[in-house]
Structure formats: C-alpha cells, structure tokens
Amino acid sequence: MEVNSFLKDCPPFDTLSEEQRSWAVSQLQSVYMNEQNCNEILRDMRPALFIVRSGVFDLRGADGRLVERLENGDLFGYPSLLSGREVVNKLQTIEDGIVYVLPQSAFDRLRNVSRTFEQYFIRAHGQRLLTEQQGDDETGSDWSEQTIGSVVTMPPVSLPSDTSVQEAAKLMAKHGISSVLVVDDTQLVGILTDRDLRNRVVAEGLPLDIRVSAVMTQLPESVYENRSLMDALTTMTSSNIHHLPVVNDQNQPVGMVTATDLIRQQRSDPVFLISAIRKASSKSQLIEEAQKLPDYLQTFASRVKQTSMLGRLMASVTDGMTRQLIQLYEQEHGAAPAAYSWLAFGSQGREDQTLSSDQDNGLLLSNGLTDKQKDWFAGLGDYVCEGLNECGIPSCPGNIMASNPDCRGTIDQWKERFQGWVESPTPKALMYCQIFFDSRPVVGPGRFYQQYRSAIADLAKNEMFLGNLAILVNRISVPLGLFNRLRTEDTTDGDTIDIKRYGIALINDIARIYSLQAGITSPGTPARLSALKGSRLLNRQDNQSLLEAWQFLTQLRLNHQLKVWGSDKPKNAIDPDELSTLSRRQLKTAFKIIKEAQQGVGLKFSRQGY
Amino acid sequence: MAQWLQRLAHWYDRRQKLKQPWQNLRYVAVDIESTGLDPKKHQILSIAWMTIHPPVMHYGNAQYHVFSHGQELELGQSPTIHGLTEQDFLHSSEPKQTFGMLSRALNDAVLVCHHKGMDWRFLKYIESQYGTSFKPLAIFDTLAFEKKKLEKDPQQPIQGGQLTLSACRQRYNLPDYHAHHALTDTVACAELFLAQCYQARQKNERLLTF
C-alpha cells in the first residue's frame, strides 16, 4: 500500500522490519491539515508522532519564533513523546496537506521492539542526528577502520640495545623475520632491519660483535595499537617505511605491522596504488599509475563507511607522487644541495583532499643559499608541480605552488610573508591565511619544519587578525532560509547548494580560528577539533557537533563526486531534492550547527560581534 | 401504510442529520476494482473502504477485500492493472459477509467515491444479488464535485483526463499515488474529499448532493 512504501523511505521507519512497519500502518491515522484545523488537531491528538506526507507547515515556539519548517517526510511531536512534557509549540499552515499521526501507545510499542527506532528519536531529540547512517548496507566490516591491534597477532620479537648484531641476526633468522624491535626497560628505542644489517654492517665491514644500538634506526616511527589500519598506512607512506612498530598506550611495543600485512588484508587496493607509485621509475610510468586513482577510489569508497578516510588517502597518494617526482628530479639533477622541506598547504595539508582539489604547495629552504642552489630548488618546484599536474592534480589557479618564487622561502622569508598578512589583513591576505596556515611537511627533516611552524603559530596569536578572520567567516551566509529551509542557488544544473563553500570550508575556517588562537599546529580539521577538546572557548558539545557536521558533509561530497565523476557536473553542488529524506534532514541540521558556530566565532573573536 | 410512514420517518431523520455541520458527520470512502464497467457482465475483483471523521482518516480499520469468484473469474483487463496477483486471490474474502460489513459501515454515514455512477451501480447490483442493502445518508461524488467546480469557468472547457482521480488530486497539491489499487484509491479519494470540503468551506459552497 502507498503509505507503507512511503514509510519505507522515511527514517526511522525504514529500519523497522516489514512486519513491524505493517503494524505501524495499522495504528496510523491520517489527517487533512489546514490553517483552520491544524492547532485543533495538535491539541486533540497529541501526544503523538506526526509525519508530514504533503503540504508545508511552520512549527513555532510559544514566543512565535519559528522552530522549524516542516515538509514532506519531516517528523514532529516526538520531544513531548519522549519527555512527557506539555508541548507549547504552535503550528501554522503554509500549504494544506496530509499528515500521518502515530499515537503514543503505538510509538511506545515500536520503541520497545526496535532499538534503532528508539535510538533515532533520542538522537534527533539531542540534535545527534548527523551520526545516523543510511541503514541499508551494513555488509562487511570496513578494513580501514579496523584497529592495528587486530591484525598484529604475533607477540613482538625484541632484544635489548646492547645485544651484538650477530646475536640479533641469529634471532631474526630463527623467527624468520626481516626486522626486530629494540627495547630497553619495556620502552621502544629502535628498530633493526635486514636492510640495516646489509647496508650499515656488512657493506661497511663492521665487526659482528658491534652492538645493535650503533646501527639500528633510533626512535622509529610507531603507531598505537588502537589506531586504524588507515593510520598505519598513512604513517608508512609518509615516512616511506615498510616496517612499523606497534605500541600500546604506555608506549610499550606490542608488535610490528608491515606493508605486507596490510596487503594481506586482501581488500587494501590503496596499498597497491601507493606502492605502485613508489615503484614508478619514470615520470610516464608515474602518470600512468596516477590515472588509475579515480577507479581505485570508486571501488575503495564502496567498501569504507567512514569516507572522510578518502580525503586522507588522496593526500597520501598526492604525497607519494610528490616524493616520487622529487626522487626523479634528484636522479637527473643530483641530490638537494641543502636541507629543505616540501610543504603541502590547503586541502592536501589538511588531508581532506578530493578528486577535484588543485595543488597547494611550497618549499621551505635553508638560509644562505647560493644562486646556483636556488636554481636547483626552482627547477625542483617547476618539475614537481608540472608533474603533479600531469598526474591529475590540477595546477593552482592562485599560483600557490612551489614553482612560484613567492612560495619558496627560508623560515625568515616565510615569517615575513605571514607577518605581512597578519598585520594588514586585506581580503587577499586573509584568503592566503586560510590556505597557508594549513600546512604539513611532505619531505624533509621534521625538526626543520617544526621550527618554521611554531614561529608561524606565534604570529597568528594576534587578536585583531583573528577578529578579521572571524568577520570573514561571518560574511558567508549559510544556505538556510528564513524558515530553516534549505536555500538553493539557481544554476544551470538546477537548484543546488555548494556544500564546499557553504559547509566544509566554513567548518575548516571555524576550526582554524580556534586552533590559531590556541596555538595548535596540526592542519586537519578533525585533528584540530580533537586537540581543542577541553578548550574554554569551544565547549565539548559544540566541538562534537562541528566534527559530526564536517564528517557528514565530506561524506556527502565524496558520494556526490564519485557519482558525477567523469561528467561535467559541478563537483561540490548538491541538489537537495535528489537526497534521501534522512540526508536532507541531516543537511539542515549540519547547516544549523554551522550557523550557530559562525555566530559563536563572531561573538568570541570579533569585537563587532555578529 | 406503515411502510410509507417508516420511509417518511427515515427521510426526516436523514434530513435532520444532514443539517449538521459537515465535519460532524461520519463518511466512508469506497473504491471498487472490477473486470469491467457492467455489473451484469463483469465481476468485482476487490473492494476497499475507510471511515473518515473529518479531518481524521482511520487507516487502522480500513478494509480491503479480494474476491476470487470460484472458477468463474474472467479477467477482462490484465489483473496487474489492479495490482492483484494470484497470491492475493488465495486470501480472498467471502462476498456476502464482506458486503454485510460494508452495509453496516455505511449506515448513518455519507458514502464518498470518485465517480458515483460506477461504484453505486455495482453496489446496487450487489443489493439485488446478495440481499444486502446499502443505505448511506448521502453520496459525495468527488468527481461530480470537481466537474461542477470546473464548469463554473465557461472560458475553460473541461478537457479529457482532467477529472481522473490523480488529475483532481494534483489540483489540490495532494501527493502522487500509484493508482488502481482499491485501498490506495480509497485513501486517495478520501484525501481528495477532505481537500475539497475544507477548501470549499472557506467559500461557503454547498457540499452534499442527494
């Protein structure tokens, strides 16, 4: 029957079993609601759950303020069902229509038989709607979210640092392993691999009784066992290593995860892609591999639930291409004449890159370079940026690229640039800040980059500058109309909403302002929000809401991009009419959260207030 | 003589009841799906009805019955048009009992249907076949109502297809339903009826016809 198929597409009724849903229909009443009878109906039939089938109604608070505009598929009346409190809201009919009414007794019975049904309303009541997933495909667990601990099965093989290399080699041979952890007093101090024995012992002709501590890699990169496989993957690719020690919360080693372990997870296509990129021995080969990226992402996306992972994956892949291009350049032009760092800015820096993101990068150079050395770096910038472009990462229209001399500088030169932006915040300067403050080193010594980054962080703690950023954030108005209705833009592709400009970018901007104020240097929005927990300026609940809104929007954008990939449809514009009822409700909630956060930033940082 | 008086009393009773405000009456929306238009030649495949107390439609006790007619069933049209499959006929209802229920439901209620000519003709035929009587207070024909409304504008002659249930519903911004399932059409007709009445009441139009 009609109403049954309607409910099938109307969360949370979609989660009920066929039988439960039919029962719900049998308990349902339906009313024709108009201006004359709507408040009478509300008075006579509550407490009940009301489901709008057609028409448009405004729910107004006791003070007449609009709470929500209700349309096809919207639910109301449940707060009083859950809390038992008297409802004071009033209805106003904008357009007559049909409204279904589920009485309290039936609502309670459904709550009892279905936990997901109950959970939905408790979440919706607490504005926790955004973490709700479309409840159809729960098939298979998401490998990238699997914890590292769950794939590390072998107990760690370890030895103290005063062991001789021969003893170490015997131990490795006995266990048939290619690397061993070096542990002193339960703490991980190093890692020794086959390669170290070959390159640092045998090739150098060192005696076999030399201590492991002399040839091991000290303080290696490691991951916590409770992190995800994706974390392991990104750490491996960013440090260009195959063996990754796994430690527990007390930093005690619990095992080792290798690239082979990840590949053994069978479904880890991205590992193949990343290792293929690393193996590319010529530019043309690299470009060929890079062209497979959209296909990889397409199949990968269908298997992961948390698609914000894909932003990190894209960034990892771009990092990999960058490193490979740098290596290819070095093969032709000799090794770098001085220490330097290749910087990723913007979305690559934040690791929320998409298939349509363009390049944002630069170079951090040592002091006192000769002209010839500078030419080497200029050549590197040209070569890598051109190469990335050929690999499908488009050049930056704003020329924020290492090929631009302005984007190559020493720490002092960069500081000077930032200082200029912070002190005279022209619109262009502020726009630069929204890109350049989100940075990450792709290549180069960590300490060199940290020195640069903390110098920049100090510059940002400038009240007037933060105030100006807050004003800028408030200039963009969230696409919610007067009545909390989604406001679309009339484009050639229909009525759409740009969820990057009006959603994701705004949350990035908001998280950046709080982070700059707190001196947090991590570039990604989820990492920033996580670091901001406990901040006095941003309370825990608003923080969580922002994260959920960000995750929802990035997911929505990715799904959209995968759908329109290869067509000339806009990559960030969503048509709300094409969304499911749940997604549409979530989109509204996300924009409501952003709107409030915008105002919060305005009040806290800009004297003018908004 | 006594019978005549009884009729008069019944008529008077009906008249009094119909004088009430329209929202105080009980309505029963009915839809019949059949193999054709002629009750003598064609058979009822399914029937549905639902009680309305304006503005409330009672989904819970809506009735839907399918008849198998033993071996005699002749599908004049493809049965899929009515959304019926063989499976449905396995759960078919007993006609006399079903029509008895409908008869009781229609007592003291106004019958609502889209195109009275067709549904009423079948009900009349049932009366003669099964000895059940259908005595609604009145009949509200959503199609006739719509036709009259459209005829008020002589500039705009009524086009074919303008009076179908779904075309009428569209003019009242009611949602699109898949037509030709007796229960769905009953609900569709009930909603159209309420939309017509509530919107007409604002203009003080006369609603009921006898």
Automatic annotation (TrEMBL), chain A:
The entry's keywords: CBS domain, Repeat
InterPro entries the record matches: CBS_dom (IPR000644), CBS_dom_sf (IPR046342), CBS_domain-containing (IPR051462), cNMP-bd_dom (IPR000595), cNMP-bd_dom_sf (IPR018490), DUF294_put_nucleoTrafse_sb-bd (IPR018821), GlnD_Uridyltrans_N (IPR005105), RmlC-like_jellyroll (IPR014710)
Domain Cyclic nucleotide-binding: 12-110
CDD domains, alphabetized: CAP_ED, CBS_pair_CAP-ED_NT_Pol-beta-like_DUF294_assoc, NT_GlnE_GlnD_like
GO molecular function: [protein-PII] uridylyltransferase activity
Keyword presence, Repeat: yes
Pfam families on file: CBS, cNMP_binding, DUF294, DUF294_C
Domain CBS: 152-208, 216-273
Keyword Ion transport annotated: no
Name of protein: Signal transduction protein
Organism name: Idiomarina ramblicola
From TrEMBL, chain B:
One GO BP: DNA metabolic process
Keyword terms, alphabetized: Exonuclease, Hydrolase, Nuclease
Domain of life where this protein originates: Bacteria
Pfam families (alphabetical): RNase_T
GO MF annotation terms: 3'-5' exonuclease activity; nucleic acid binding
Exonuclease domain ranges (all copies): 26-202
Keyword Hydrolase among record annotations: yes
Cellular component GO terms, alphabetical: cytosol
Bilayer-crossing regions: none
The protein's name in its UniProt record: 3'-5' exonuclease
